[in-house]
Design brief:
Radius of gyration: 21 Å
Number of strands: 10
Order of helices and strands: HEEHEHHHHEHHHHHHHHEEEEHHHEE
Mean pLDDT: 91
CATH class: Mainly Alpha
Organism: Streptomyces silvae
Distance between the termini: 37 Å
Family: Belongs to the cytochrome P450 family.
Protein name: Cytochrome P450
Number of domains: 1
Structural class: alpha+beta
Strand content: 5-15%
């Protein structure tokens, strides 16, 4: 795997030509595997003999993984993403009420108001920049970060730092010392936020988690509390940030598809679903581990192997999505659903919120600026330095075309 990231689609196509499951070399020369094909990935994500708990990660248990390994946090953070069975259900139940369809709809007016305010800020940034502004910085980032931090009860003074640390944690080209420092600082920031809530309880998710811990210590340990907050912050904004960014890029480079939406022949929900399939916000997500030697699509994945879930590859798998899988088509509709928000017990808890935030953001953005376009050629946009996140690091746009 290329630790510097970049656009994954060309390499995904080459790998898919070799099969739905392939061996990969992770940073630090760690041997792993990736599941790329849609059908194989769907089976793998829900397989009863596949675990998330790192006690099943053979190389880690044997002491072969260094402390500064850039992917170690994905394996060792204590929370829903590394829990199985009853532990996973226990942790998920503590936060699931905040992300029900009903609760998300109750948040819609707040998201709409925040979106409008951010668009005002984007306009001001463009006026100051000669008609050009970075949509990612001024719009796509502060929207989901503001919403998830408001849900949690994390003050605005922490937003920029938490985003920077999130970027460092999901980076795959980071040096060992930087990886350790980023994780340590993220724990410090979130611990400070939790301490503040203990001293001044509020009607937010941190307060609810602390109350659950104090009422029944067996329900949420201190490391699980911080691990859960870390998951909520990173997953709660990075995925939606990339989704909005990728959707705008796709629409700007496929004006015919934008015209379909603006003329009412397709919906913003169609745009979101097609973007999730065509340019998944997460390319390869670490890790799952077979608890026994597992044969998938004719390939054996040895017990204890760290396996990447190849969402961006599965989204363009021609065997599942047809020979035009590489085409961005907001009218695609029906057919095979994408897996970009997961499948099985670990299906993305925040999926309703991500969908709602993205549809609101895109609808308001293009209602105000229907001629919005990229300010530089798409090929020149700087990519994420990670094979986990799939997007660009900046999105300069010209608001009036």
């Amino acid at each position: 795997m290329d630790p510097s990231g970049g656009c994954p689609h060309a390499s995904n196509a080459r790998l898919l030509d070799r099969g739905a499951v392939t061996s990969v070399i992770l940073p630090g020369e760690v041997e792993g595997m990736a599941v790329l094909g849609h059908d194989a990935l769907k089976e793998f994500l829900a397989h009863p003999d596949v675990a998330k708990d790192a006690r099943h990660f053979s190389a880690l248990q044997e002491g072969a993984i260094a402390d500064g390994w850039p992917l170690k946090t994905f394996a060792t953070v204590q929370g829903m993403t590394t829990a199985d069975g009853a532990d996973h259900r226990r942790l998920r139940s503590l936060v699931s009420k905040a992300f029900t369809v009903r609760r998300v709809e109750e948040l819609r007016p707040r998201v709409e108001a925040l979106t409008a305010s951010l668009l005002d800020g984007l306009d001001r940034a463009a006026d100051a920049g000669g008609g050009v502004a970075d949509l990612r910085t001024h719009f796509a980032l502060p929207l989901p970060m503001g919403v998830i931090c408001e849900l949690l009860g994390v003050g605005a003074e922490h937003h920029d730092r938490l985003h920077h640390l999130s970027n460092r944690i999901v980076a795959t080209d980071i040096a060992p010392a930087e990886a350790v420092a980023a994780n340590r600082e993220m724990v410090e920031v979130l611990s400070a936020a939790a301490t503040a809530r203990m001293e001044s309880p509020g009607d937010d998710l941190i307060g609810a988690l602390i109350a659950a811990r104090e009422a029944d210590g067996d329900r949420l340990g201190p490391h699980e509390l911080i691990g859960t907050l870390m998951l909520m912050v990173i997953a709660g904004h990075e995925t939606t940030l990339n989704l909005i960014t990728n959707a705008v890029r796709a629409l700007c480079t496929h004006r015919d598809q934008l015209d379909l939406v603006l003329s009412g022949r397709a919906s913003w929900a169609d745009v979101v679903e097609e973007t999730l399939r065509w340019d998944s916000p997460v390319s390869y997500f670490p890790f799952r581990y077979p608890t026994r030697d597992l044969t998938l699509d004719g390939t054996v994945i040895p017990k204890g192997t760290p396996v990447l879930a190849g969402y961006s590859a599965a989204g363009r798998d021609e065997k599942a999505h047809g020979p035009d899988a590489g085409r961005f088509d907001v009218t695609r509709g029906g057919g095979t659903r994408h897996l970009s928000l997961g499948h099985g017990a670990h299906y993305c808890l925040g999926a309703p919120l991500a969908r709602m935030e993205s549809t609101v953001a895109l609808a308001q953005l293009f209602a105000r600026h229907p001629r919005l376009d990229l300010a530089v050629p798409e090929a020149e946009l700087p990519r994420h330095a990670s094979f986990v996140g799939n997007s660009v690091r900046a999105l300069p746009v010209r608001l009036h075309g």
